[in-house]
Q: What sequence folds into this?
């Protein structure tokens, strides 16, 4: 790093607090700085630093739904700044010293998708055990990143400290927490940042979509404009997995029939739908003439497949099959792509449905309106009636009513 660059970093400590805004710039294509940039604050990351940087590290914790939208902004960044190599640190929030958990964490489906993304030079995924976490920090420190940006929203003070540990002399930007939630430890962490991004808040009466929130972050940080039309999720499915899905359908005898994919599972019970309700829904849909010959595919976790199969048999449901993407992430979107309709609780599958342009009925709580599917023309959202309701409060009759319209 040059002395000039070091001096720049020491004299440009920036913060930009206040309520986040979404910058739409309708009709504009991706650009580093919009034509009307003079109307907005200067980017948090100094322009001179961006022009001279050869590499950057982004730090975040990711789920599949996060990446479905964030990849658009990483792609826009690499197009706007092709001279900068982009590395990504995917932090495992479930990190544990328990060896019995490592196999599951090591094979997290997200890693297949992220690693296939051409935006990244390197992806740090070995963070699921304390020892591997420390080793990954040492590996990242050797890169001497001139620019590290944390876009982690959970426990952001820890990621501010991590970013500074990785880049002691670089320019570090990161998230802060809501006022009033800070302790001395938090305030010490915020001082490690050269630039701060305020936490986003959601107005449930007029909620921003999560993609607009991400657009706001990248505009604040880099002056990067990603218009609404370029924020839709996408997934490039390798041919090998499309062929795999076709073989699976052939083995089930589902070719030539309409297919419905139902996903009742999420990481928490609050967002899941009871399996018994799924069986009732399949029977109800099959009672409609236009769906009476359809095949139904029920998504399950690997350790739930046998239980789902038994329940299907117990309910006497023909042409209904349990599915689990156990080999590779791309098995999931490949199977989804073959379907005529997807019904899913509020998890990544409803966003993947938009990515592959298959109609979706999404079952959601009221808690996170910013995460509704972005493609309104191909999505129907059924929301639980009350603020504290879980997804299981949604009835089969509500889903059937949505299907009828």
A:
């Amino acid at each position: 790093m040059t002395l000039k660059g070091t001096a720049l970093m020491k004299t440009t400590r920036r913060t930009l607090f206040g309520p986040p805004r979404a910058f739409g710039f309708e009709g504009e294509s991706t650009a580093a700085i919009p034509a009307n940039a003079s109307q907005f604050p200067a980017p948090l990351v100094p322009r001179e630093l961006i022009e001279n940087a050869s590499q950057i590290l982004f730090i975040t914790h990711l789920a599949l739904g996060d990446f479905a939208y964030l990849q658009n902004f990483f792609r826009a960044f690499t197009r706007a700044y092709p001279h900068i190599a982009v590395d990504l640190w995917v932090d495992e929030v479930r990190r544990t010293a328990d060896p019995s958990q490592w196999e599951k964490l090591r094979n997290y489906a997200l890693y297949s998708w992220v690693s296939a993304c051409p935006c990244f030079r390197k992806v740090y995924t070995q963070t699921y055990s304390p020892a591997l976490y420390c080793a990954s920090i040492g590996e990242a420190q050797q890169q001497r990143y001139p620019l590290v940006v944390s876009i982690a929203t959970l426990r952001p003070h820890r990621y501010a400290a991590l970013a500074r540990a990785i880049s002691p002399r670089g320019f570090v930007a990161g998230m802060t927490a809501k006022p009033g939630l800070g302790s001395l430890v938090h305030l010490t962490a915020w001082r490690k940042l050269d630039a701060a991004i305020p936490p986003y808040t959601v107005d449930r009466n007029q909620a921003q979509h999560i993609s607009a929130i991400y657009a706001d972050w990248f505009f604040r940080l880099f002056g990067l404009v990603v218009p609404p039309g370029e924020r839709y999720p996408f997934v490039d499915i390798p041919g090998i997995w499309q062929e795999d899905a076709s073989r699976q359908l052939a083995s089930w005898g589902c070719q030539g029939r309409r297919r419905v994919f139902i996903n009742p599972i999420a990481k928490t019970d609050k967002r899941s739908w009871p399996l018994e309700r799924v069986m009732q829904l399949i029977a109800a849909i099959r009672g409609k003439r236009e769906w009476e010959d359809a095949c139904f595919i029920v998504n399950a976790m690997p350790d739930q497949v046998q239980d789902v199969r038994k329940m299907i048999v117990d309910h006497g449901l023909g042409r209904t099959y349990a599915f689990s993407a156990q080999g590779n992430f791309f098995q999931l979107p490949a199977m989804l792509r073959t379907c005529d309709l997807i019904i899913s609780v509020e998890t990544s599958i409803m966003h993947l449905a938009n990515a592959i342009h298959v109609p979706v009925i999404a079952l959601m709580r009221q808690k996170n309106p910013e995460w509704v599917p972005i493609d309104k023309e191909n999505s129907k959202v059924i929301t639980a009636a009350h603020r504290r309701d879980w997804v299981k409060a949604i009835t089969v009759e509500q889903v059937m009513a949505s299907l009828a319209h």
In short: DSSP finds 15 helices and 13 strands in the chain. The mean pLDDT is 89.
